[in-house]
Amino acid sequence: MPSISIVMPVYNEVPVPGDDSFLSRIQALLQLLRQGDELLLVDGGSTDQSWPVLQTLAEHPQVLAIQGNKGRAQQMNAGAEKARGDVLLFLHADTVLTKAAWQALLFKLDPSVWGRFNVCIDGKSAWLPVVSWFMNHRSRLTKIGTGDQALFVGRKLFDQVGGFPKQPLMEDVELCKRLKRVAPQKFVAVASPVFTSGRRWDVNGAWATIVLMWRFRFLYWRGVSADTLARLYADTRQKLPVTVAVFAKYPQAGRVKTRLIPMLGAEQCAMFARYLLLSTLDKLQGVNVALWTDGGTPEEWATLLKGRAIQCYVQPEGHLGVRMRAAVETHLNGSELVVLLGPDAVEFTASHLRELIDTARQQGLAFVPAHDGGYVALACNRVVPEIFSELIEWGTARVAEQTRVALRSKGLRAVWLSSQLDIDEPADLGRAIESGCVPVDWPVRYSSID
């Protein structure tokens, strides 16, 4: 039978170290490959952990990892250039090719054909099955498939039409139009579906996304160039998956951890605040981190953060809600999800970060509450004004409950994960050391900033 080269464009698919969701999808995909088949993973300059993960996957004899310029068309063409298979299958990183779909493709496989699979969209909206139905039936009638439907094409036919066009948007539509002109009778619609992520529908709203997609298809049909459409449409895939915004005061004696002064003294409180901040930042290695600072000069922060490539922002004036909202609004311009985190969340680990991110992606808003009545972290994919209200008594044990009440009053939902310890009182520090969250020798860790 003809051999198949699966080409997958990848960009920022591994947002935090240890995130194995992408890895598990690839491992399942590898189980489908026959002798002679291959998987080409084409990174588009990821800024997260994706490229190191791809290099690890490339240790498999049927996997090739390469780097190319960002942009699906360019990445898929780069993969196709290296591919050795008789048939090219272009699979998006958030689309799952099931065993049933794979077997259905093998049954119809012929190097002279081209086509796509039916698609099922996984997501929360009840409209997504309807969207999938219309996508599949429209595609069957028009012979125009989308990238979410996992396009496939014989190698020679792909080369005959010049591959994907070098354009930033609608490259899948244009490829199908070219194939339809030269080989209309060779179109194959595989009924067994692939499953693709409904994240953009969940994040942006099902109807809003449907209207937007049809608007851009209509504009493209009317002759508006792909470059113009790309400037009009900020695709969420062009954003970073996650930004973690850490809030911290400059560790100056007498200004930080003041409730611990009777136990530690002012100077050692400053050392402890430095330990908390730097250990938190080190836990977040490989994640896109932004530090929102309070106090200290740029030079002092640069000295403190020596060797850490972290962009700093100055917290605005106002209560904590004002400052947190500023961070969320700032980072949602370039990230799909924003996590707000305090440095004294000593129990918070990379595993907790993954759980928080996954929950917020599904539900939109998630919190990690603190034992003392506040919360140590939150994650959101949109601005929710109610959680930043001046009516919340910031800095008190009533913050979490008042946040819940504010959300319920507006009919809004959030997920509250298991509560954790943060350190404000002397007893908190004792519990943290006893449980191992803070090492006994913390005073000598990060004791020097040179």
Automatic annotation (TrEMBL):
It comes from the Bacteria. Keywords: Cell membrane, Glycosyltransferase, Membrane, Transferase. Gene3D superfamilies: Spore Coat Polysaccharide Biosynthesis Protein SpsA, Chain A. InterPro entries: Glyco_trans_2-like, Nucleotide-diphossugar_trans, Trfase_1_rSAM/seldom-assoc, Trfase_2_rSAM/seldom_assoc. Coiled coil: none annotated. It is found in: Cell membrane. SUPFAM superfamilies: Nucleotide-diphospho-sugar transferases (SSF53448). Residues 5-126 form the Glycosyltransferase 2-like domain. The keyword NAD does not apply. Pfam families: DUF2064 (PF09837), Glycos_transf_2 (PF00535). Its main location: membrane. This is DUF2064 domain-containing protein. It comes from Limnobacter profundi. The lineage of its organism: Bacteria, Pseudomonadati, Pseudomonadota, Betaproteobacteria, Burkholderiales.
